[in-house]
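Protein: UPF0126 membrane protein
Species: Deinococcus cellulosilyticus
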Amino acid sequence: MTLDQSLYVLNLLGIFVFSLTGAFIAIRRKLDLYGVIVLGCVTAVGGGSIRDALTGTAPPIYLRDETFLWVAILGAIIAFVFPRLERFERTLSAFDTAGLALFAVSGALGGIQMDFGVLGVIFVGTLSGVGGGIIRDVLVGAVPSVLYRNNEIYATAAAAGALTVYLLHDRVDVITGQLLGIFVVVALRWLSRRGFLKLPVRNA
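Structure follows.
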């Protein structure tokens, strides 16, 4: 599988799972079907839009290939039809972690394609992972959850995954690098969710 093909698959998967998380937040806020679809789609494509802007890709990929928008709409509708899925916190957390990992890795690969340095790749990968959630929270009038996740490792996990992809991109094949990047994000989120890893907090 080529780098372009890998990016395509990662984008589709990331858009689907982030659409679910955005739609579940919309359902919590008692939005109607239209609102659920809009918030699901914004969450799904927000991070990718930031990635495309930073890597000079215009227009954004979802406008050049409507498959991505259809996948986002499908994810939102599935969440609307099966709202009980949202009640399972572990399920929602798993979807969120999956989306974070997929977009962090795809963002890192996009940065590598543009020959960015290590900090550029980390920056693009991290914003690609957390951007959709930030836009989602702002739209519903909430402080972005990435800023106060009870000291959990979240954006840091995306940064670590992006760094992993960068360090391995010229040492292993594309698929192996992607899988290891995804593994790092998922592992850090798992350890953090269980209280083994926390970010320090300065008490006032």
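Remarks: The helical segments are 3-28, 33-54, 61-64, 67-81, 89-113, 118-139, 155-168, 174-193.
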